[in-house]
Specification:
Helices cover 40% and strands 20% of the residues. The chain is of the alpha+beta class. The strands form seven sheets. It has a seven-stranded mixed β-sheet, with helices on both faces. Strands 3-2-1-6 form a four-stranded mixed β-sheet. A two-stranded antiparallel ribbon has the order 4-5. The N and C termini lie far apart (55 Å). The mean pLDDT is 97. Bound molecules: adenosine-5'-diphosphate (ADP) and 6-deoxy-beta-L-fructofuranose. The site of 6-deoxy-beta-L-fructofuranose has 16 residues, from helix 10. Its EC number is 2.7.1.5. One of its GO terms (molecular function) is glycerol kinase activity. One of its GO terms (biological process) is rhamnose catabolic process. Belongs to the FGGY kinase family. This is Rhamnulokinase.
């Protein structure tokens, strides 16, 4: 074909894909070239990403794309946030690539606050406090005298790591760098003072690169593996959430007073607004919202919510009990269960990395004075209802923070496939939900590449293209009043 084809490598915490995108008759057409599971592994006492396996799958996907398309204009990688690779002076792994659910950093935050107070970290970074943030992962490495830190020469986040494997060029892309909790969101420079106080070697960090930059060409060893000759890498928003928000089919980019919010719904639910400026104030700190960096210096004011992780892990729990379920089956079983049988808090720390999610949920029910039940359908339903109520609470806080009503909730990501959850979200929040596109992250990744190459001129133009190209589904609130009592109970139970 004559049109430019853009390849998005999109790695989520649960799965990865290589997607080809091209404009055909004024519409962006997506072709899913390759999809694969992202399966981390327990090794001794650590929990690690299978970076070798992921790289193998990326190469496979790129090779398949090369066979399918001519005229590949560019490639870009986006991934989940916070995790990183440390390389030694010979550019080899200085240590294992830990998963953010690895246990080593558990409880680290309180210890860090003794030398580096919470307020100061917030003032410097504007980020929601989560022990998964790279800052705290690195602090736990410092605390235990991890030899990886002694020999490390460079720090790369996951997207940067794969970009380096593709091109041989090291970079740290701004949107994912903003999830480290070591970056100043006002000018996107590293918070050197914070690193010094935490004994994190500053020399590991190069200057940040903005999305849309041409990083380099696919290097010869990768050309040999994939057949992709003369293909450049244009850096997208390498943070998956950053890419997803680029592709939300909404109004004006980074509005002063947003009347819409998004939920990027996958393993996590990232719920928030796109703003022109970060909001680093007391209310934001108290509500534990985050100011992540978006494209063109925009801000994603949002909360990281425990997401479909619970639902995913319930599926795994059933597998452990030799019962295979698919998503559609789980959703239809949830539909058959009584509403509000159990109230769950998706952000309870008991659900962060349990050996068995179903057991963890039963323990949670007992701990909070609810009757644990044996019917699996009840737990499927509860994990979706708990999420919808959590969205309602988040929306109320978000409206206070932005100082006005939010009319519309855009749901993008795999969770947009879950019609029951979309309807529950509309009901619990009493707002219109617009669901789709499901592959917003890959689309947003492609849009920044297209801007880099010069095929489209702005995020607004990219969003118009998304609106013209993809169908969305609208959900209106049907029985919002049903959610008042359970939501009040939920708040009592969780103390939120
Ligand atoms: P991540 O990027 O975090 O890996 P995704 O955005 O790919 O996550 O979303 C994956 C989730 O989407 C699954 O865990 C599942 O809950 C949900 N999902 C995907 N397809 C369907 C479907 N057909 N019906 C219901 N839920 C679905
Ligand atoms: C979602 C996500 C989220 C967080 C988490 C670690 O996939 O990127 O924004 O950073 O993963």
């Amino acid at each position: 074909s004559d049109t430019n084809v853009y390849l998005a490598v999109d790695l989520g915490a649960s799965s990865g894909r290589v997607i080809g995108a091209q404009v055909v008759a004024g519409k962006l057409e997506l072709t899913e070239v390759h999809r694969f599971a992202n399966e981390p592994v327990h090794i001794q006492d650590s929990y690690q990403w299978d970076v070798h396996g992921l790289w193998r799958e990326i190469l496979t996907g790129l090779r398949m794309a090369g066979q399918q398309f001519t005229g590949i204009a560019s490639v870009g990688v986006d991934t989940w946030g916070v995790d990183y690779v440390l390389l030694n002076r010979q550019d080899q792994f200085a240590g294992p690539v830990r998963h953010y659910r690895d246990e080593r950093k558990n409880g680290i935050m309180e210890r860090v606050f003794q030398t580096c107070p919470r307020d100061e970290i917030f003032a410097a970074t504007g980020l929601q406090f989560m022990e998964i943030n790279s800052l705290f992962q690195l602090c736990s490495a410092v605390e235990c005298g991890d030899p990886a830190l002694e020999i490390a020469e460079s720090f790369l986040m996951m997207g940067d790591f794969f970009h380096w494997l593709l091109t041989g060029v090291k970079s740290l892309e701004a949107t994912n760098a903003s999830t480290t909790q070591m970056l100043d969101p006002r000018d996107q420079t590293w918070s050197v003072g914070l690193m010094q106080r935490c004994n994190i070697p500053q020399k590991l960090f190069c200057e940040v690169t903005v999305p849309g930059t041409k990083l380099g060409m696919i290097q010869p060893s990768v050309v040999a593996e994939t057949g992709l000759a003369d293909v450049p890498v244009y850096v997208p928003a390498t943070h998956d959430t950053g890419s997803a928000v680029v592709a939300v089919p909404a109004g004006e980019f980074a509005p002063q007073r947003p009347d819409w919010c998004y939920i990027s719904s996958g393993t996590w639910s990232l719920m928030g607004c796109e703003l022109a400026e970060p909001k680093i104030n007391e209310m934001c700190a108290e509500m534990n919202f985050t100011n992540e960096g978006g494209v063109y210096g925009s801000t994603r004011l949002l909360q990281n919510i425990g997401g479909l992780w619970l639902f995913q892990q319930l599926r795994r729990s059933m597998q452990r009990r030799a019962v295979e379920r698919d998503w559609a089956e789980m959703v239809s079983m949830a539909e058959s269960a009584q509403p509000f049988g159990i109230l769950l808090d998706p952000d309870d720390s008991a659900f962060a990395a349990p050996t068995d999610m179903l057991d963890a949920m039963k323990e949670f029910a007992e701990r909070t004075g609810q009757a644990a039940v044996d019917d699996e359908a009840v737990w499927y339903r509860a994990s979706l209802e708990g999420l919808a109520i959590r969205y309602r609470v988040c929306l109320a806080d978000l409206e206070k923070l932005v100082g006005g009503r939010i009319d519309t909730i855009h749901v993008v990501g795999g969770g947009a496939n879950n019609e029951m959850l979309c309807q529950m979200t509309a009901d619990a929040c009493n707002r219109t939900v617009i669901a789709g596109p499901v592959e917003a992250t890959a689309i947003g990744n492609v849009i920044m590449q297209m801007i880099g190459v010069g095929e489209i001129e702005s995020v607004d133009a990219g969003r118009r293209l998304v609106q013209e190209s993809f169908d969305v589904k609208t959900y209106r609130p049907q029985s919002p009043a049903n959610w008042d009592t359970p939501s009040a109970k939920w708040c009592e139970l969780t103390g939120r």
